Amino acid sequence: MGKLSTFNFISLDGYYKDANDGISWHPHDEEGTELSIDSLKNKSTLLFGRKTYEMMASFWPGKDARTQMPEVAAGMNKAEKIVFSTTMTKADWNNTTLIKGNLTEEIKKMKQGDKNMTILGSGSIISQLAKDNLIDEYLFLLDPIAIGKGTSLFNDLTEPLNLKLITTQPFKSGAVLLTYQAC
Question: 4-182 domain in CATH 3.40.430.10?
Answer without folding.
Answer: yes
